[in-house]
Design goal:
With 90 residues, the chain is mainly α. The chain contains five helices and two strands.
């Protein structure tokens, strides 16, 4: 029974269940494309953070979450500005 459960779970994870890939697997594989930062977004993040590593990490993480929520593929100045406004409200 254990091997049946494991094979079934592996099939769901790899998308080999049924005729085609599951919706969750397609969504995950679409999200595996790397999200990039535009040069202007990087410059703005550096300016806001004043080069402080922890602030850079926090800004970049929040920007990645923002761009994923927006369904985008690249962090741009608009994402950085939204994140900056959120941070200022804390």
């Amino acid at each position: 029974l254990d091997h049946i459960v494991k094979n079934r779970a592996l099939g769901v994870i790899t998308g080999e269940v049924g005729a085609g890939k599951s919706t969750a697997v397609r969504a995950l594989s679409a999200r595996l494309d790397p999200i990039r930062f535009s040069d202007s977004a990087i410059a703005q993040i550096y300016s806001i953070s004043r080069g402080i590593p922890r602030v850079i990490n926090n800004l970049c993480t929040a920007c990645l979450l923002d761009v994923m929520a927006q369904g985008g593929q690249m962090v741009d100045v608009a994402n950085v500005q939204r994140v900056q406004l959120d941070f200022e409200q804390l």
